[in-house]
Amino acid sequence: MSWMIRWFFKVLTERWFLVSLIIINFLGSIYGFYWYKNQLIATEPSFLRLFVPDSPTSSSLFTIVLILLLLGKRFPSLEAFAAVTNFKYGIWAVLMILLGAAKGNPLQWTDYMLMISHGGMAAESLLYSRFYSIRLVHLLPVAVWTLLNDLLDYTLNIHPWLPAVLADYDNAIGWFTFGLSLFSIMLVYQLVRVSEYTPAKKKV
After folding, report:
1. What tens digit of pLDDT does each residue of 16-36 get?
2. Which domain holds residue 55?
3. Alpha-carbon span 150 to 95, nearest angstrom
4. Whole-prediction pTM value?
């Protein structure tokens, strides 16, 4: 079993695998920004649009992290932003789709596609944690940005549009999102602490 684990983590840094993942993330990010187009147009004042496309922004950042990994480069501040937000919004989207379905919103094929893609976002953030060069100081700005984003999302109502069946749960979803942000930050911090002295960090 140990050799399979070593093989798996070795594959994560193989050129063909990284290139494939970069292409998948890049195309997914483009689709994500397209998916947000109507909400971006409807959001005023225009500067608030920066806080609207949460998932495609985080997947775009993670795409850059993968490119840097492919080039043998490190940018810990970018890694911190990408790791936290990619995990958070990956989990958030899957749970919101499932919650909507539980409340009577019928699942479409696009919902299954979104759950797979966002589940992959969360998974890749965790799988590549052994290769991050993040320290606590890099996570502090991420915490400020992420919690500010939550505050703006749920006080100015610029969070991702939700199914109508979830309209009555907006406040509860806001508090859940805030808690998920804290959990994501702490999880990434714990993961990089565990992997801080692993040989993988020195080899990649």
Report:
1. 999 999 999 999 999 999 999
2. 2-203
3. 16
4. 0.91
Query: Shortest CA distance to 58 belongs to which of 162, 166, 180, 154?
Result: 180
**pLDDT surpasses 50 at 202:** no
CB 141 within 8 A of CB 52: no
For the chain, the farthest-separated pair of C-alpha atoms sits apart, in whole angstroms, at 55
Between CA 168 and CA 98 the distance in angstroms is 16
Tokens found for residue 79: 């890694």
CB 142 within 8 A of CB 84: yes
Contact 86, 119 (CB under 8 A): no
Match 């790791």 to its residue by tokens. Answer: 83
Burial track 58-76 (b if 16+ CB lie within 10 A, e otherwise): bbbbbbbbbeebbeeebee
State the total domains in the chain: 1
Q: Tokens 């990994």 belong to which residue?
A: 69
